[in-house]
Amino acid sequence: MLEIKNLHVKLEEEDKPILKGLDLKVGSGEVHAIMGPNGSGKSTLSYVLSGRDGYEVTDGAASLDGESLLEMEPEERAAAGLFLAFQYPVEIPGVGNMTFLRTALNAQRKARGETELSAGDFLKLVREKAKALKIDAEMLKRPVNVGFSGGEKKRNEILQMAMLEPRMCILDETDSGLDVDAMKLVADGVNALRSKDRSFLVITHYQRLLDHIVPDVVHIMAEGRIVKTGGPDLALEVEQNGYADILAGAN
Amino acid sequence: MRKDAGRDSTTAERLAALDLPTGGFTAPARAAALARFREMGLPGRRDEYWRFTDPAPLNATSAPEAALFTGLVEPQLFGERDRIVLTFVDGEFDPAQSSPNVAAEGLEISRLAEADRVDLHWAQGLYGVLEAAGQRPVPRPFAALNTAAASDGVLIRATGKVDRPVHLIYVHADTQSDAILHHCVRVEAGAELTVLETGPAAARFSKVMEVDVADGGRFHHIRAQGRDHSRRAITHIFARLGAEALFKSFTLTANGVLTRNEAVITLAGDGAVAHVAGAALGDGATGAFHHDDTVFVTHEAEGCESRQVFKKVLRNGAVGVFQGKILVRQGAQKTDGYQISQSLLLDEDSQFLAKPELEIYADDVKCSHGSTTGAIDETALFYLRSRGVPREEAQSLLVLSFLADAIAEIEDEGLQAEIVGRLENWLARRRKG
Ligand SMILES: Nc1ncnc2c1ncn2[C@@H]1O[C@H](COP(=O)(O)OP(=O)(O)O)[C@@H](O)[C@H]1O
Ligand SMILES: [Mg+2]
After folding, report:
1. From the CB of residue B178, how many other CB atoms can be counted at a distance below 10 Å?
2. Which of A150, B20, B70, B332 has the fewest Cβ atoms within 10 angstroms?
3. In whole angstroms, what is the distance from residue A2 CA to residue A6 CA?
């Protein structure tokens, strides 16, 4: 599904390397977790994969189903099935959540040569998906993320994911700022989307999310590279001993 | 304005080229306005109030030619609703395109040109009166000229809650038309009225609307100025509000080589509320765009609220101007005055010139004003694109997002939706190039 080879990335504006030869392979239907200390480059990886400006790939490659991602526009990557749940979802005053969702969904369908969803069908679909995430009609009508609590913003990200049905989902610290109940809701939302055709890359700083979204593979990232890879136990090890031991062992 | 010989001669030439109406109940008001206008003279670039907008095309003795905008057939804005339609083609009333029956519960409508046939003593106390009062402290010569020279207009009086809006449609059919219309609106105590205005009107359009809202009256005004690229317009709204009266005005402007919209609003009775808002979009690539909102709000009474919300989206060398003032007179305690003017520049060629002003002579007031100029928020743009929305479409959504606060000033949700629909179409056409 997702294949990253020797990825080197620096900031466009300055010569500061952030990703320094990152390798990663996520197979179809798999859930991978990336853990790592703050500043290790986790968000940068998610941004570079989804095509945000401001970064320069100096070496390496990244592909989705064999198709190189790095030349594509962000919207093309989305239409190809990539989705990023933002660490900090963006507020867009004056644009209704529904309008936003419908515009996005129909734009992707159009890009893939599918017919656009009718207003009625869309409404039915969004109500059904929102209900599972305990997102009420009022929240759907409000401007995108404006005045949403931290938990509401994260649930809204998962709602977008559920609506857009991407095949490769990247979740950047979706657990940050959530209480246990909200985290459970988000995790249930994600688990409901798990399937053999859909893969996940779950970026998290803490192990606790991984109690709810149990990964197949856990990677530890430090200073722009994957330094250790293992099973779910690796996350527990981080939880108990912190990163220092693992990083020392890896070097 | 300073007197000078050059100004006097252009003023005289401008007047000589006009056909000034005589007689009728407006005669004294017109004569007084003419004298006012002669005294003020036409404005020049050196006048402080015209520093950002060149009045030359408005000063010219004849209307600069303006091509008709024929490229687009869209359904009439507000056309689906039950309303009373009055259509003016290049400033001339067209009965064929107007509602045959303008009678409605609590509503009296007459044409200015025919007003002498009916008893309109209320209009006598209004025609040119608010305009004259609005000449201080800043002279507005085009408004005085309008009062003196208007060929027609509508006199509207609401005596109750009028449930059908009055829709003034301005058609532009002649590339050299020079239209001058003057409307008077009186909303009696406790009455309510909505006036809609749409269309480019003429090659050059001068319009004054005097609005007198009595105690507890409510007046709503929604206007869309038409898409003609080369039309020019100078418009004035003069409003006076009684106690607990409400005045809400919203203007959408897309295109237009020159637009100057002045709003002069006086909150004269305690607890009055006045909101005036505008959303302007200009693309210099399809003809020059210069859009000027000049607003003067005076608080004379206690506990009044005023809001000015003006947003401009500019690209390809478009120019936006905002001159806005809140004047709080002595004794106007508990005033709540708010003013915001913002521009979204879609490139580096466009510019926004703003002059926000506060002048306060009361001590217990809450007044704020702000003006900003910004570009598209790249983070929001990326967020939308990452969801699959193509760049241009995402930019349009962000433009709508930027304009939202101004559009929110339209109280009626249906009218709001129609304005948003127009904006979406305008933006979609821009995307196609
Ligand atoms: N746009 C940026 N400008 C400056 N520094 C940046 C930018 N993006 C990332 N960085 C730097 O790159 C490093 C990795 O950041 P990030 O990817 O956010 O890490 P993580 O998500 O793992 O905490 C940090 O040192 C951060 O300061
Ligand atoms: Mg991060």
Report:
1. 22
2. B70
3. 13
| Closest-CA residue to B206 (of B11, B18, B44) | B18
Q: A150 lies in which domain range?
A: 2-250
Contact call for A103 and B405, based on CB within 8 A: no
For residue A146 and ligand 1, the question of a CB distance below 6 A is answered with: no
Q: Which of A78, A92, A95 sits opposite B388 (nearest CB)?
A: A78
- β-strand partners of B113: none
For residue B397, tell me if it sits in a domain: no
CA of B109, closest CA in chain A: separation in Å?
Answer: 37
User: Would you report the helix, strand and coil content of chain B in percent, each value rounded to 5?
Assistant: 25, 40, 35
Residues 6+ apart with CB under 8 A from A150: A176, A177, A178, A182
| Cβ A56 under 6 angstroms from ligand 1 | no
For ligand 1, say whether the CB of A44 is within 6 Å of any of its atoms: yes
Is the Cα dihedral A185, A187, A190, A194 positive or negative? negative
CB B385 to CB A111 under 8 A? no
How many CB atoms lie under 10 A from the CB of residue B101? 7
| Phi, psi angles (nearest 5°) of residue B277 | -140, 155
Please give the biggest Cα pair distance in chain A. 57
Is the CB of A18 within 6 Å of ligand 1?
yes
Mean of all residue pLDDT scores within chain A: 91
Q: Is the pLDDT of residue B1 over 60?
A: no
Task: Compute the average pLDDT of residues B191-208.
Answer: 97
Euclidean distance between CA atoms B78 and B93, whole angstroms: 19
Tell me the chain A residues in contact with residue B374 when contact means C-beta distances shorter than 8 Å.
none
pLDDT tens profile A162-217 = 999 999 999 999 888 888 888 888 899 899 999 999 999 999 988 888 889 999 99
Nearest-angstrom CA–CA distance, B348 and B392? 17
Owning domain of residue B116: 5-376
How many Cα atoms sit within 13 Å of A132 on the Cβ side?
Answer: 18
Q: What are phi and psi of B255, to 5 degrees?
A: 75, 175
Q: How many CA atoms lie within 13 A of B229 on its CB side?
A: 13
Six-digit token string for B372: 């900003």
pLDDT above 70 for B432 = no
Cα nearest neighbour of A53 on chain B = B382
What is the CATH number for A74? 3.40.50.300
| CB A189 within 8 Å of CB A133 | yes
Q: Give yes or no for residue A230 CB within 6 A of ligand 1.
A: no
Short-list B248, B232, B308, CA closest to B55: B232
Q: Is B217 helix (H, G, I), strand (E, B) or coil?
A: coil
Mutational test site, ligand 1, from A13, A15, A43, max ligand atoms within 8 Å of CB? A43
Which neighbouring-strand residues pair with B344?
Answer: B313, B374
In a domain, B170, yes or no: yes
Among A residues 119-148, those touching chain B with beta carbons less than 8 Å apart: 143
CA of A37, closest atom in ligand 1: 22
Q: Are B387 and B356 in contact (CB under 8 A)?
A: no
Q: What is the pTM of this model?
A: 0.92
Strand partners, B342: B311, B372
- Residue B306 included in any domain: yes
In a domain, B63, yes or no: yes
- The pLDDT value given to residue B3: 59
Beta bridge partners of B209: B183, B237
Longest C-alpha distance within chain B, in Å? 67
The count of domains in chain A is 1
Residue B103: both structure tokens together: 């009678």
Q: Which residue has the tokens 């306005």?
A: B33
